[in-house]
Amino acid sequence: MAFRASPTRLLPVSAPNMATTAAPCTPAPWRSVFLSHVSSMPQPTLVLSTLHPVEPGVTRHGFSLVPRARTCIYRGLWGTWPSNGDRNPAPRNAQVFESDLPVITTDIRMEKAAEIVGTAATPSPFSGTESGGGGPVEAVWWAEPQGTQWRVRGTAWVLGPDIDGDGRGARAVREALRERMRRAGDGGKSLEGNEAPGSAAEAAWSWSREVTGHFGNLSPGMRGTFRNPPPGRPVTLPVDPDSGLGIGQTVDDVDDQVARRNFRVVVIVPDEVDQVDLSDMKNPKRWLYVYRGASYKTTQPGGEVIGEWEKVELWP
């Protein structure tokens, strides 16, 4: 990704070619600070913005795409979802992979899933049953204890029950995420409690098991929301009594067919991370991290290449 000078900020000229970048070998330079800040939040909420395609012939002030934003709960980084102790009955993958990819969960019947799939550079028809994505998103955290705002810009991918399958959408998701996953450990060595890369545990690592783990990490009441009547539907319309849908249910079974049919994991693949530190208003700080991939040499004034990322300090 090249940038041209601007009076206000560094502007991307083109998106990074993810197909040609090597899998990351080191954690992102912003990762540890970001995780520290998010873990200190009373509730790790973020605002997720997407682009909403307007129905053909029904424009909004002449626009065919309009912004949408909503508050979501941060669910950890892909490959390393946080333990919920004995409250999560789902089987867990061995800790052989890690990433810098934030995760949220959603109901496939909500609009964000269709927006993520429908605004991709190469959009595919949204069936509501297949994995897919690639649409542009921006996620914003306000870590109030540290007075720091985090903006993560990139693409988002929706993972469903078919994620281990051969469908075009599932294959695209796995390819996009795998390019930004790395083996946990140092130089192929095992970390405490982890399996060494190349082991049977790595070969047995399952995408669908990871999705089920995120479902199990929800409380039974939250799992039950995926049995709600269709979100956004008028309450005056009847609900099929045989559908299993209804308000206020709890779900203990992590393989509950009705809830799992609607449950999805959404993974954000960051291209830019914008950190603004306002803890000292007399001396605010701002850094922009841009994913560059392997073998990049900085061309930006003050730029510093750290692993696959370039870090530039900006005026706030």
How would you characterize the overall build of this protein?
The chain has 316 residues and is an alpha+beta fold. The chain has a single domain (31-232, 247-279), classed as Pnp Oxidase, Chain A, CATH 2.30.110.10. Helix content is 17%, strand content 28%. It has seven helices and 13 strands. The chain has helices at residues 31-39, 111-118, 168-178, 200-203, 207-216, 220-224, 257-262; strands at residues 3-4, 11-12, 45-53, 65-73, 97-99, 103-107, 132-143, 148-159, 181-183, 263-277, 285-291, 304-306, 309-314. Strands 3, 4, 6, 7, 8, 10, 11, 12 and 13 form a nine-stranded antiparallel sheet that branches. A hairpin with a 4-residue loop joins strand 7 (132-143) and strand 8. It is globular and about 65 Å long. The two termini are 22 Å apart. The model is unreliable at 1-22 and 186-192 (pLDDT under 50).
